[in-house]
Design brief:
It is built from twelve helices and two strands; from the N terminus they run αββααααααααααα. With about 240 residues, it is mainly α. It has two domains: about 80 residues, Arc Repressor Mutant, subunit A; about 150 residues, Tetracycline Repressor, domain 2, CATH 1.10.357. The chain has a two-stranded antiparallel ribbon with strand order 1-2. One of its GO terms (molecular function) is DNA binding.
Length: about 240
């Protein structure tokens, strides 16, 4: 159960600027005051989010333990609820942070500088590599699906994050159609979904697939081959014959 986000909840008080004030300690010998380092609010909040990300990705929302998060952050549990009113709010903030990381990286692709085929292959490579480099992100998304996407659905910030990604794909498709390289009529959301489904599977389903088919999905060679096959598959789907 969460606590209300206020001074009583964390056992601390804020100064007029909204920052936690310095506490001064009297020295026994000289009667002087020595300032105790003030906790940086943004740094503390980010540390909570980073630790909560690992905790929720490993144990889910229901199994995630705020006591464990507090212990790892070396803070009180009440301080967690000073920054985040509830465990659910903390989980939503973790999702926002995780998706923001991916969206920020997508902005650096500069697909507009590439020819349509090269741009599609670059997008595939990025998406595939991101999922493999961030298996905790894949687990977190799977956990949110268990909860029927209710946290993402309630977050306006997460909804807004989607638009630049889809807009980037839409512009790439339009440019490809105009040049005669890509066939018309491809929906950018459908393409985004297909690309992520193909990339997501090899991380989310790796263990069960390997166990059933004795198929290597985790070696550098296997990942490079799978990435190349996805790029070939999508380009053959998109190109104008």
């Amino acid at each position: 159960m969460g606590y209300g986000g206020g001074e009583a909840a964390c056992g601390c008080h804020e100064g007029p600027t909204g920052q936690m004030p310095s506490v001064k300690k009297q020295t026994a010998r000289a009667g002087k005051t020595t300032p105790i380092k003030r906790r940086d609010r943004d740094r503390t909040r980010q540390e909570i989010l980073d630790i909560a990300f690992a905790e929720f990705a490993e144990n889910g929302l229901s199994g995630g333990n705020t006591d464990a998060i507090a212990a790892r952050a070396n803070i009180t549990k009440r301080l967690i609820f000073y920054y985040f009113n509830s465990k659910e709010e903390l989980f939503t903030a973790v999702l926002e942070m995780a998706y923001a990381k991916m969206r920020a990286a997508e902005e650096d692709l500069h697909l507009e500088a590439l020819e349509p085929e090269a741009a599609i292959r670059r997008l595939v490579e990025f998406t595939f590599d991101f999922h493999h480099a961030n298996p905790e992100f894949v687990r977190l998304v799977s956990i949110e699906n268990i909860h029927r996407g209710r946290h993402i659905g309630a977050s306006q910030r997460l909804k807004e994050m989607t638009q630049p990604s889809i807009s980037q794909i839409a512009k790439l498709l339009a440019r490809g159609v105009a040049s005669g390289a890509i066939r018309p009529g491809v929906d950018p959301i459908e393409l985004h979904m297909t690309l992520n489904a193909l990339s997501f599977f090899s991380v989310a389903n790796r263990h069960t697939f390997e166990a059933q088919f004795a198929w290597d999905m985790s070696s550098p060679k296997a990942k490079a081959q799978r990435r190349s096959e996805i790029a070939d598959l999508l380009w053959r789907y998109l190109r104008k014959v």
